Amino acid sequence: MLTAIYQADRADRATTLTVSLATIGVTTTYLIGTIAFYDKLDLLGWAISLLPFPLLCTAAFHAQLLNLAAVRARSILTLERALLAATDHGESHSLDPSRIGATAAEHATNIHTAGTPLRLAMLIAYSGAGIIPLAYTALMLVKAAHHLGGWVAVPAALYLILLVPIVFAWRDSATKLDFNATANPTTSA
């Protein structure tokens, strides 16, 4: 029974990755599409200030996906440990749990446990996911300021208010990816 749950959990993680990649593709297309027509955006007038909103929604959705991935990683690690504990350790070919399955993948791809080059690559990816929406929002608000004047402070304040829970959600999700915390079953998820 644990094996079936394990396989289902792995399939769920693959689906989450697919959704994440699709979301990144849509977001990239949106960015390129709006930036390509940057010189024509003045035709939108004050509505330019609304253009960053889909990116903030995407950032919030990605925080949800990261949280889901973290919870599922903990789940699959727990199942994997249970399966390994159930195997006969008296065999001459005992398994090193850190070298197989989800545990090995977590050691290689988790920002808390990966090697330095991979950590740097992950930091670049996560930083880009944060910097790009912020830079785009600032760019669009500067463009909208020509139409809104001082009123551009209103959408700027709204975006700042929306960013606060998104930042905390990302931070919480990244904290849940702490592989070492999964070793302690009393740690709350």
Structure description:
With 189 residues, the protein is an all-alpha fold. It has one domain (2-182). The chain contains six helices and no strands. It has helices at residues 2-36, 53-86, 101-109, 116-148, 153-176, 179-182. Helix 1 (2-36) packs antiparallel against helix 2 (53-86), helix 2 (53-86) crosses helix 3 and helix 2 runs antiparallel to helix 4. The longest helix is centred in the first third of the chain and has 35 residues, at 2-36. The protein is elongated and about 75 Å long. The chain starts with a helix and ends in a 7-residue tail after the last helix. The relative contact order is 0.14. Residues 184-189 have low confidence and may be disordered.
Output the keywords.
mainly alpha, 74% helix, transmembrane, 189 residues, transmembrane helix, membrane
